[in-house]
Design a protein that fits this description.
- By secondary structure, the chain is an alpha/beta fold.
- It folds into 2 domains: about 90 residues, no CATH class; about 150 residues.
- It has 9 helices and 6 strands.
- It has a 4-stranded mixed sheet.
- A hairpin with a 4-residue loop joins β3 and β4.
- The longest helix has about 35 residues.
- The protein starts with a strand and ends in an 18-residue tail after the last helix.
Length: about 280
């Protein structure tokens, strides 16, 4: 598997503006300036979605007087102009430089651990790691970004290194979403299995010590999955020790058959964000 790390400046800007946390105080001041300059421009709200409903209504109104294609071309042109104005600012240059430095840090950590962790997750999951190419688009580390775009082989990533090898563990978490999304039976359940495999078992293996669900004072895993994670733990430990199933897809089927999924009424195809 080839992992390529990149920065897309358009995504970097849009993600930073959309984030509740800001990378540094000067960026907040820049956003105040952008608001003053573009608050009456519908295209701006594709970046700042605070009033996106107003934007949609504006565009719908224009549909009455223009062809849809022309309306979107004009909106796209105006949005491109806003992006280019932002790219010229000293705040963006600072944002980009800090993100570049973070990309180097993440890449160095991944290069050091890649062979070990890919072998580990392949062995534990029972999934053969293909030669597919995955692109990781890096954002500023202060903004707590982590998501897999399933079906596109893309990971969006930027997070503080809360504990040793944090980036490696959670890049593997996102990789598991890419490897499982089209074969899973229950996204909620599979997400929990991914957490047990990467957030917990891989973390402990890679760092040489630790325990499930806690690391360096941090709670490990999504809060909404915690109850199910703890319920699955005895089954998971048996899976690891006795190799009761050939892969995590068979393990997932077994858990569904045993009706251990929480909550019991959860629909099989309920969408769960891959992050």
């Amino acid at each position: 598997m080839k992992i390529e790390f990149k920065i897309n400046k358009y995504y970097l800007v849009s993600h930073t503006i959309a984030s509740k946390i800001k990378p540094f105080s000067a960026w907040e001041k820049l956003e105040d300036k952008l608001w003053g300059k573009y608050k009456n421009e519908p295209a701006y709200y594709f970046l700042n979605t605070k009033h996106i409903n107003w934007t949609i209504e504006q565009i719908r109104w224009e549909f009455l007087n223009k062809r849809i294609e022309k309306t979107f071309q004009e909106t796209s042109f105006r949005l491109e102009k806003i992006y280019k104005d932002i790219f010229k600012t000293k705040e963006f240059k600072k944002l980009y430089k800090e993100t570049e430095e973070y990309l180097k840090f993440v890449k160095n950590e991944w290069d050091k651990n890649q062979k070990e962790v890919l072998n580990f997750i392949s062995k534990i999951s029972g999934i053969k790691i293909s030669n597919k190419k995955v692109t990781v688009f890096i954002t500023h580390p202060k903004l707590h970004n982590g998501r897999a775009l399933t079906g596109k082989n893309i990971i969006l990533w930027g997070h503080p290194e809360d504990w040793e090898n944090y980036n490696t563990v959670y890049l593997c978490h996102e990789l598991m979403h890419l490897l499982t999304w089209n074969c899973q039976k229950n996204p909620f359940l599979m997400h929990t299995i991914v957490e047990l495999l990467t957030d917990n078992e891989l973390r402990i293996k890679l760092n040489g010590s630790g325990k499930y669900f806690k690391e360096n004072g941090f709670e490990i895993g999504h809060h909404e999955l915690r109850k199910l994670s703890k319920k699955l733990l005895p089954y998971w430990k048996k899976y690891l020790k006795e190799k009761t199933h050939k892969n995590i897809f068979e393990f997932e089927k077994f858990l569904i058959k045993k009706r251990v999924v929480y909550p019991p009424s959860l629909p099989v195809n309920r969408p769960v964000p891959a992050h």
